[in-house]
Amino acid sequence: MEYCFDLGVWNSVFAVPADIVDKHIKLAGAAQLKVVLWMLRHAGENFGINDISKALSMHEADVRDSMQYWVQTGVVSFRDNIITPAPAVNGAGDGLADLTAEQQQAEAHEEAEQTDIVTQAGQSERDEKTEPEENHKRALSRPEKPDMKYLNQRMTDDPAIACLMHSADDIFGRMISNNDKQTLLLIHEYDGLPVEVILMLLQYASSIGKMNMRYIEKIAIKWADDEIFTLEAAEARIAQLTESATAARRVQRIIGLEPHSPTELEKELAGRWVDQWCFSDELIRAAYESCVNAKGKYFPKYTDSILRRWHNSGIKNIEQLEKMKTDDINIKNKKKAEKSYKPTYDISAYEQTGMLGEEWDD
Question: Is 262 within 8 Å of 252 (Cβ atoms)?
């Protein structure tokens, strides 16, 4: 008699490295775990990025980012189109060029920019101990972004950092790239924005449809310079930005511009004209027309200089503006008349010579 030991779904099993569970189960995102499990399940088979993408219904770029995560964390290595366990921590990342030529260029560029993060982190700790935080001044040039090893260590040590990275995925509606995660960590550790403020910034960027990390980093640097380090300050700044965007759309309508997403300069100027100086539509239109008449086309900064002069002169309505223009014309005409009148002789000098008296004596 023959017997069969039926394990059901366990009849077909595959091995999972303990490190994946011990070190990365809380750090890795859902997409990264899916990718590594799929690769382990298909060990010994030939497959490509597109195969994983189709099997997991993921974008190919997300698959590449997920694979790069496991390379940078030292779990696997790519060499000669073969995925193998990474031989050593220092060897992690070897052979990334085999993923794609594009991936090779990106990785090479990233490695060229990075320095020893351990040294950098140690220096930061020494700086914090020797210099009070309130006196700390950011350097003019930004440092290199932390690498994935340091990022994962920070996520392990600080639950708030892990929460930031996972929440960013939710806000973006997708798994953000490793490079984006490194940027968020840089914003937190170098620019000094607390996690809750960064999350509020991400929510704001999402609400205006600008889920671009370059834009987010630019705004974060501005917030750091303006010491936006609390939720209250962030809420006030977002309210100001929202009002400025509304003001910019109003200015577009007033001067007849094609509707478009306003630039930061346009929002800043419009916020000043509408919210700070409280100019009416008529005055803004008049300043626009003055700019076009003088320069031939619309220049926001030149228009701002016109409105600034009116604001400093206390102009609040069209009637006051017309009176100011009339007064300016009268003053110019008076100066022109005074300049054009030039006597042919100096009567005072003539009197001093006594010649006038001598003529009358004769």
Answer: yes
